[in-house]
Amino acid sequence: MTLLPWLQQNWDHLCDYRLQNRVPQALLITGQKGLGKHQLAEQFATSLLCAKPQDSGLGCGHCDSCLLLKAQTHPDFIQIKPEEPGKTITIGQIRNLITRLTLKPHNDAYRVVIVNPADLMNNAAANAFLKCLEEPTERTVILLITDKPARLPATIVSRCQKLAVARPDKATVAVWLKQQAAQDDPALLLGLAQGAPLLALHYAKEGTLGLRNDCFKAWMAIAKQRSHPVIIAEDWYKLPEDPLIVWITSWIIDLIKCRYQIKVDGLYNPDLKDSLQELSHQLDLKGLYKLYDLLLMRRRLLDTQINKHSLFEEILIKWSELNRSKQTCQTQRPDKVY
C-alpha cells in the first residue's frame, strides 16, 4: 500500500516511535474526514506486525504477517467498528475486546487494535474501554481514530498520545487528483470536500459535482420563491445527507464571504460566485449567521437517529424565511455587524 503524499510527515513521526522503541500504548489519530487517517493507522499496524519492514517503514508485503493482514486473518490485528452503519460501538464489543486482550499475542511482535470511529463508542462502551487504557496488556498498541475528538470522554483522551492529521495544501492534492485520473476541476472537488483529498476523489468517481449543481439550483429556486421548501426537502431526503448538509453549509459560508468581498479563490464554491455575490447583498447578515449556527448544530446530529426529512424541512424553511425578509437588510452595512 502506497503512502498518501500528504501523510509523509505523520508517517515519519510514527516511524520514529518504532525505531526508538517508544511505540505508545494508546495513540489518538485525529483530523477531518477524508484525509486518510484509517489508511495511515493500517499502515502503521502493518509496520509493527511485519517481520521485515522496508527502509521506508512500510510493510514488506511478502512475509507471513503481511499475507495474513491482506487476507484479514491476522490473529494479532483487531478492528473495532460499529456493527451496522449508523449504530454505535457497544459495550458487548468492548467486553469481547477486553477478553481477547487478556491472552498473549500469538506472535513475537506487537498486537494492534484499531477503534474507528472511536467517538461512536456509547457511554457504557467508553467506560468499559478505559480498562484497556488503565491496565495495558503485553505488547498491545491501541489506535483510536476520530474526526470528532470533542465527543470522546476526557478520561480517554488524557490517556492517549496524539497525532493530528492536517489538511494538505491545495497544490499537493491537485497533483495527486490528476494522477488518480480525476476529470473534474481539482479546485472545485476540493471545495466540495472542504479540502479532504479522499473525499474529493470519491466525489470525482461518483459524478457528485452534477448532483451538487442540481441541489444548488433547487436552493436558489427557494431563494427566489419559485419552489416550496417542503417539496425540495422531500426530494433531498432521498439523497445522502452528509455531503448535502456540508454543501449547504459551504453555500452559507460563501454568502457571508461574498458580503465581506472575499476574493473568489477564498470561496468553497468559486464556480457559483456570480449567483452567490448577487444574492449576498440582498440578505440579512445576522440572519445568515443564525442559519449557519443552525446548520452546525444539526450537523452534530447526523450520526444520531434524527429524522432527516424534518431536518431538511427545518433548514429549508429557515432559508425561505430569510429570503422573504430581504427588504429589511438593504441598507445594512457589513462593517456594523460584530
Blueprint of the fold:
Blueprint: H1 8-19, E1 26-30, H2 37-49, H3 64-70, E2 77-80, H4 91-101, E3 111-115, H5 123-134, E4 140-146, H6 154-157, E5 161-164, H7 170-179, H8 186-192, H9 197-206, H10 208-223, H11 229-236, H12 241-259, H13 273-280, H14 285-299, H15 308-324
Helix pairs in contact: 4-5, 8-9, 11-15, 12-13, 12-14, 14-15
Descriptive overview:
The structure is a single chain. The chain is an alpha/beta fold and 338 residues long. It folds into 2 domains: 5-164, Rossmann fold (3-Layer(aba) Sandwich); 207-336, Zinc Finger, Delta Prime, domain 3 (Up-down Bundle), CATH 1.20.272. Helix content is 50%, strand content 7%. The protein has helices at 8-19, 37-49, 64-70, 91-101, 123-134, 154-157, 170-179, 186-192, 197-206, 208-223, 229-236, 241-259, 273-280, 285-299, 308-324, and strands at 26-30, 77-80, 111-115, 140-146, 161-164. A 5-stranded parallel β-sheet has the order 2-3-4-1-5, sandwiched between helices. Strand 3, helix 5 and strand 4 form a beta-alpha-beta unit. Helix 11 runs antiparallel to helix 15 and helix 14 (285-299) packs antiparallel against helix 15 (308-324). The radius of gyration is 23 Å and the shape is elongated. The chain starts with 7 loop residues before the first helix and ends in a 14-residue tail after the last helix.
Describe this structure in a few short sentences.
This protein is α/β, with parallel strands linked by helices and 338 residues long. Helices cover 50% and strands 7% of the residues. It folds into two domains: 5-164, P-loop containing nucleotide triphosphate hydrolases (Rossmann fold, 3-Layer(aba) Sandwich); 207-336, Zinc Finger, Delta Prime, domain 3.
